[in-house]
Amino acid sequence: MLDRYAIAVIRWPLKQAAVQLTKWGIKPDTVTLSGFLIGLLAVPALALQVYWLALVFIIINRLFDGLDGALAREQGLTDAGGFLDITLDFIFYAAIPFGFALADPASNAIAASFLLFCFMGTGASFLAFAIMASKHQIDNPVYANKSMYYIGGITEGTETIASFVLMCLFPTYMAWIAGVFGAACLMTAATRVWAGYRTLHDVEVN
């Protein structure tokens, strides 16, 4: 829901950084892999309940995720790079609830499991529609520079990261934050399934 506004704010500084990194010969896939590996360090940090450090790794991961996209737009979008980016993003998103479950299984495991269940709904609806949209050559003017169709919803990347930040800042309320955010994810999955089905149905009928 907030991604289009967040992108508008960070687009210019990311582009300037991408221009400089391109001059240094840095490739988008290198940034994607580096950001992913740094992001995974949040899991042991969470397991050890060093929440401030986990937050640092999460923020670095997200900065790298924005930067690899800016680099790709500067150097040329590729399907391979887009595939790598979205796949590692989804693994990273799943890793954070897992880390909180490790931190305090008694308090967090059920909430983390619920959130992962909800992520499955948002992720499956997102990727399934992207495949079908590509097949039918459906354009997305909102995210025209993405390597695949980005179907929106109440919860997108910005809301996901905001929830992770809140969990790190207020770890004792992780279960409540996960519950509220998970419910919003279920609403997103439901609206995506309905909107995606109606869109594809109308395309095929017409």
UniProtKB/TrEMBL annotation:
<dbReference type="InterPro" id="IPR000462">
    <property type="entry name" value="CDP-OH_P_trans"/>
</dbReference>
<feature type="transmembrane region" description="Helical">
    <location>
        <begin position="36"/>
        <end position="60"/>
    </location>
</feature>
<dbReference type="GO" id="GO:0016780">
    <property type="term" value="F:phosphotransferase activity, for other substituted phosphate groups"/>
</dbReference>
<keyword id="KW-0472">Membrane</keyword>
<dbReference type="InterPro" id="IPR048254">
    <property type="entry name" value="CDP_ALCOHOL_P_TRANSF_CS"/>
</dbReference>
<keyword id="KW-1133">Transmembrane helix</keyword>
<protein>
    <recommendedName>
        <fullName>CDP-alcohol phosphatidyltransferase family protein</fullName>
    </recommendedName>
</protein>
<dbReference type="GO" id="GO:0016020">
    <property type="term" value="C:membrane"/>
</dbReference>
<dbReference type="Pfam" id="PF01066">
    <property type="entry name" value="CDP-OH_P_transf"/>
</dbReference>
<keyword id="KW-0808">Transferase</keyword>
<comment type="similarity">
    <text>Belongs to the CDP-alcohol phosphatidyltransferase class-I family.</text>
</comment>
<dbReference type="GO" id="GO:0008654">
    <property type="term" value="P:phospholipid biosynthetic process"/>
</dbReference>
<feature type="transmembrane region" description="Helical">
    <location>
        <begin position="81"/>
        <end position="103"/>
    </location>
</feature>
<dbReference type="InterPro" id="IPR043130">
    <property type="entry name" value="CDP-OH_PTrfase_TM_dom"/>
</dbReference>
<feature type="transmembrane region" description="Helical">
    <location>
        <begin position="173"/>
        <end position="195"/>
    </location>
</feature>
<keyword id="KW-0812">Transmembrane</keyword>
<feature type="transmembrane region" description="Helical">
    <location>
        <begin position="109"/>
        <end position="129"/>
    </location>
</feature>
